[in-house]
Amino acid sequence: MTRDIKKIIKQMTLEEKAGLCSGLDAWRTKPVERLGIPSIMMTDGPMG
């Protein structure tokens, strides 16, 4: 499935965009369920 990123971003509210930048917690992004954007878990290795 191909998604048009610019189209999705235009549909996002300012609060949703900020949520992607600030995150759900220290390790996960905040999902935007209404647009089908899941939470993503990120980690950092010992070397940065």
Automatic annotation (TrEMBL):
One GO MF term attached to the UniProt entry: hydrolase activity, hydrolyzing O-glycosyl compounds
Entry annotated with the keyword Nucleus: no
Keyword terms: Hydrolase
Cross-referenced InterPro entries: GH, Glyco_hydro_3_N_sf
GO biological process, one term: carbohydrate metabolic process
Highest taxon in the source lineage: Bacteria
Protein name per the record: Beta-glucosidase
Organism: Acetivibrio straminisolvens JCM 21531
